[in-house]
Design a protein that fits this description.
It is a single chain. By secondary structure, the chain is of the alpha+beta class. Helices cover 36% and strands 14% of the residues. It has six helices and five strands, in the order ββαββαβαααα. A five-stranded mixed beta sheet has the order 2-1-5-3-4, sandwiched between helices. Helix 3 packs across helix 6. The protein is globular. It starts with a strand and ends with a helix. The relative contact order is 0.17. It binds FE2/S2 (inorganic) cluster (FES) (2 copies). The site of one FE2/S2 (inorganic) cluster has 11 residues, from loops. One FE2/S2 (inorganic) cluster binds next to loops.
């Protein structure tokens, strides 16, 4: 049994310690906003925050996150109010199919937490998530909008 705190709620998870956090979240905790893309930490669609740090949950075992605070896309809005990154995403029509977007948003939230006014170079080096729909230009515009919100 592993104790996790996900989006402010405690969960006791009965799973093999090697189970990737992604599958713990989706299948044990029931939060399916975090998506499986590649399974090898390459695409970023599974990005969540672990103690405030963006991590690719497909490649983080349950044993590594025991007792830590995990935030998923479902935990970003506070008291029914969307995070400014979510608002910018809507204003700039960023998502197309949407599959990569929860991971993209979680990565961007961490970037803005660390660098409130990122340059294009900061965005290029920090946001390495892959979007098969090619929303990269809209992502960039929305990041700057959120930074100025
Ligand atoms: S599914 Fe985790 S990085 Fe692609
Ligand atoms: S919006 Fe479709 S993969 Fe990114």
């Amino acid at each position: 049994m592993a104790a996790l705190n996900v989006n402010g709620r405690n969960h006791d998870v009965k799973a093999d310690p090697n189970t990737p956090l992604l599958w713990v979240l989706r299948e044990h905790v029931g939060l399916t906003g975090t998506k499986y893309g590649c399974g090898i930490a390459a695409c970023g669609s599974c990005t969540v925050h672990v103690d405030g740090i963006a991590m690719r949950s497909c490649s983080v075992p349950l044993s590594a996150v025991e007792g830590k605070k995990i935030t998923t896309i479902e935990g970003l809005a506070q008291n029914g109010v969307l995070h400014k990154v979510q608002k910018a995403w809507i204003d700039h029509d960023v998502p197309q199919c949407g599959y990569c977007q929860s991971g993209m948003i979680m990565a961007v939230v961490e970037l803005l937490n660390n660098k409130p006014k990122p340059t294009d170079a900061d965005i290029n080096s920090s946001i390495t998530n892959i979007c098969r729909c090619g929303t990269f230009q809209q992502v960039r515009e929305a990041i700057h909008a959120a930074a100025n919100a």
